[in-house]
Amino acid sequence: MKKIAVVGVNNNQGRELLTTLEENGFAADEVMAVDTDSPLGTQVSYGEDVDMDVFDLRDFDFSAVKLAVFCTSEEVAKRYIPHATAKNVMVIDCSSAYATDIDVPLIISGINDDKVSDAKKGIIAIPSPQVTQLLKPLQKISASNKIKRLVINAYMSASVYGKEAMDELFNQTRKIFMNEPIVDDQEVFHKQIAFNVLPQVGEFIGDETQKEWIMNVEIKKVLGGDVKVHANCAVIPAFVGIGEFVNVECEQEVDVDAIRNLMRDTKGVVVFDKHVDCGYVSLNDVQGESDVYVSRLRQDVSVENGFSFWCVADDLKAASTQNAFNILQKVLKK
Fold first, then answer.
1. Which of 257, 312, 325, 319 is nearest to 20 (CA)?
2. What is residue 318's predicted lDDT score, i.e. its pLDDT?
3. Mean pLDDT over residues 293-318, rounded?
């Protein structure tokens, strides 16, 4: 029986995907857990009752699987995905390794699922979570009214850097409360992240940071290259989740009430927007949730045909793993 390989099970996203597979009825014998530097005897939990062996990626035989989902870094994805495709294995890549490859479709479930058949190299890429999160609410709007320009301010939790960054945030916070120096806990951010906001996510690429650059690339690949994008990304002292203020400019006139109704009718999107104190959704409200939540929807009077909104999501679950799982199901059905 051909199985599904989840590559990167020692990462937060890999573990989240295993949980999603188990919760949706995939038996343990249908799934193989894989990661780098996994000596014999390494195991990972699959549900409450099963401990699954973790195979070492360096010598893993991809001929045993039908589909592989890579929840790894770009470096690992670029090195090992060719090993999988050489065995005629369909790959879903959750890194940004193939975001700019014209022969690799970049897919958000519900927006451009039809692009699955364009996977000429046997690879399907999914956008970074901050892109999926903001485009899901725009799914029906973009289908009826061409989007000209997007301005995004993204407030990203430590989870975008992985477990080491989350640990660093925890250790810095604890030491500040204990009045201890944090100089030994600045390996990931190179600055204090606890009780702070850092206007840099990833290395600089010219004037933009890596995350700002990739947002520009991925949004244009999904919506079309003529959309104008300006992204600003910052890391905030939260463990999980991303919050984004999004300004949208369309070609045709927009009505905020109509926009609200379209978002409400979009699968995977919840609109909670009340113009009273706390009538919005915050990061802490959505941890563990599979949907994208929209609040603060209003007209943008600074441009013609504009509106803006606030959206939050669990970046590990709603904005990344759920998208990968939806695409996985579509591939398996084909």
1. 325
2. 86
3. 96
Question: 46 with 24: CB under 8 angstroms?
Answer: no
Residue 38 corresponds to which amino acid? S
pTM of the model: 0.91
DSSP state letters, 269-314: EEE---SSTT-S--GGGSTT-SSEEEEEEEE-TTSTTEEEEEEEE-
- Distance (Å, whole) CA 60 – CA 74: 18
Q: What is the mean pLDDT of the chain?
A: 94
Angle at 129 between CA 124 and CA 132, to 5 degrees: 75
| pLDDT for the residue numbered 39 | 82
Q: Which CATH number fits domain 3-127+321-333: 3.40.50.720, 1.10.10.10, 3.30.720.10, 1.10.357.10?
A: 3.40.50.720
Of residues 122, 25, 147, 119, the one with CA closest to residue 68: 122
pLDDT band of 4, cuts 50, 70, 90: very high
Torsion of CA 126, 225, 141, 325, to 10 degrees: -10
